[in-house]
Amino acid sequence: MPGPALTHVPDLDSLDLLLRVAATGSLGQAAAAHGISQPAVSARIRSMERQVGFALVHRGPTGSTLTPGGALVADWARDVLHAAAELEAGILSLRDEREGRLVVAASQTVAEHLLPRWLVRLSVERPQTAVQLAAMNSAGVVKAVLAGDAGLGFVEGPGVPRGLGSRIVTRDRLTVVVPPGHPWARRRTPVGVEELAATRLVHREPASGTRAAFEAALERALPGHPPLPDPLLEVSTGSAVRSAVAAGAGPAVLSDLAVRDDVGSGRLVEVAVRGVDLGRDLRAVWPTAQRPTGPAQDLLAIATARA
Questions:
Q1: What is the pLDDT of residues 213-231, one digit of tens each?
Q2: Is residue 245 a contact partner of residue 177, using CB atoms and an 8 Å limit?
Q3: CA distances from residue 279 to 209, 215, 251 in whole angstroms, order as listed
Q4: Rounded Cα distance, 142 and 287, in Å
Q5: What domain of life does the UniProt record list for this protein's source (predicted)?
Q6: Where are the alpha helices (DSSP H) in the chain?
Q7: What is the pLDDT of residues 11-20, one digit of tens each?
Q8: Strand 101-107 and strand 130-136: pairing?
Q9: Domain limits, CATH 3.40.190.290, in the chain
């Protein structure tokens, strides 16, 4: 419920000006202390007097003194200004705390393969900022950002939920990989999208951005296709998916960022696919009504520049 309108209470700067007049006995000295002209001080005093409804300052040939009513207002003003100073100090301490600490929530692909070098750059630009990185699936990132538990989030899903602002930070590509002994590793022709959609895969959990992006890509390529088969195996991290595939469990779809080294070393084999676009955007997200500021804004700029 809104409080009453304080129609007879001068603003803080005017109250401080009144105290200056009381302390110096001079409109000129009060003007100098506030960095304004003496006529401006006189005008401000007259405005305050109209607002409160009685005279505050007696102007005499040897200086200016407060009227009895002005002296009472000045006494009350000291308490008001002291309370305002405490409020300002409290707000600044909260700002300093927020500026000195940043919680980042990121999907596992971004957390493992992109954020480390972004955070190194942030530590150079803001050495006093302590950063806490929480790696989770994209659904968890969305939940953390909307709840205010993270100052900035990074997701890899196909869309941005309501209530979040976003910016693309880089483009990624999903890659189908198999162990070296899998039949697809020896194929001379790409795997068709229909065959891929009908194959049981090693998957992340349903809330994973990688899995959601893959399923969205199949829906675009095969609108209204039959339900996908149950996963061959379902695990909760990308590294577990890679290990399962390398051990011979079966094919999987993972970020190119996550499998690049394994494919280069021969531990996994990349399989060509036709009929489906497996590119996707990686995004930074934040609450719509609260754009990133301070270290979160700096990290967003670093991530975008590195894109």
A1: 999 999 999 998 889 999 9
A2: yes
A3: 13, 12, 18
A4: 9
A5: Bacteria
A6: 12-24, 27-34, 38-52, 68-99, 108-113, 115-125, 138-146, 193-198, 209-221, 238-246, 256-265, 294-306
A7: 899 899 899 9
A8: parallel
A9: 101-300
CA distances from 148 to 8, 120, 180, 285, 290 (A): 39, 24, 45, 12, 10
What would the pLDDT profile of 257-291 be if each residue is shown by its tens digit?
Answer: 999 999 999 999 999 999 999 999 999 999 998 88
Can you give the length of the chain in residues? 307
Amino acid identity of 8? H
The closest alpha carbon to 39, from 28, 26, 23, belongs to 28
Q: Which of 163, 170, 113, 171 is nearest to 285 (CA)?
A: 163
Rounded to the nearest integer, the mean pLDDT of the chain is: 90
Residue 152 and residue 298 in contact, taking contact as beta carbons nearer than 8 Å: no
Alpha-carbon Rg for the chain in angstroms: 32
Q: Which fold has domain 101-300?
A: D-Maltodextrin-Binding Protein; domain 2 (3.40.190)
* Distance in angstroms (rounded) separating the CA atoms of residues 139 and 71: 61
| Domain at 12-97, CATH class | mainly alpha
pTM of the model: 0.67
Q: Return the SS3 of 147.
A: coil
User: Rounded to an integer, what distance in angstroms lies between the CA atom of residue 242 and that of residue 252?
Assistant: 8
